[in-house]
Amino acid sequence: MGLDEPDPLTKVFSALADPIRRDMVARLTEADATVSELAEPYEVSVQAVSKHLKVLEEAGLVTRSRDAQRRPVHLDAEVFDLMSAWIERYRRRAEERYRRLDTVLDTVPDDIAPMPPRPTSSLPTSEPDPPKENPTP
Q1: Which CATH architecture has domain 8-76?
Q2: What is the pLDDT along the chain (137 residues), one digit of tens a residue?
Q3: Cα separations (Å) of 66 from 33, 55, 63, 76, 92?
Q4: Of 37, 78, 122, 125, which is most buried by a Cβ count within 10 Å?
Q5: Strands 62-64 and 73-75
Q6: Interatomic CA distance for residues 97 and 95, integer angstroms
Q7: pTM of the predicted model, to two decimals?
């Protein structure tokens, strides 16, 4: 992987940013399918679906095999493990932050009056100078 090449996780999330590709992945969770079968519900060409599949392949989400005359597309579920591990790590961090916030909030008495809102600007709010009159020549 070069300096300009995105990491595998970035490739996966980028590939899944497109709604057609997300739908294809969802359909492939049910069963393998050919390019033509995947193209059926969309109002795009088979060539456009092939381009979508190439993006999914480069991200490691799907593979193509040869089965006699068929070339079925297969979902590679291992990539989901990578995504799940990344999501889980940040989910745990967020939950820990919320637990700490709950602990702090539990120490605050219920009968404390709310604080007044802070000013939105630190600049003085004086009136502007009146416009200067132009002397007539």
Answers
A1: Orthogonal Bundle (1.10)
A2: 555 778 889 999 999 999 999 999 999 999 999 999 999 999 888 899 999 999 999 999 999 887 667 789 999 988 888 889 999 999 999 999 999 999 988 888 887 777 788 887 666 556 666 666 666 65
A3: 12, 19, 10, 16, 41
A4: 37
A5: antiparallel
A6: 5
A7: 0.65
Domains of the chain, residue spans: 8-76
Tokens read off for 39 = 């193209």
Bridge partners for 64 per DSSP: 73
CA distance 98 to 106: 12
All residues at 6 or more sequence positions from 120 whose CB lies less than 8 Å from its CB, including other chains: none
CA angle 91, 97, 101 (to 5 degrees): 140
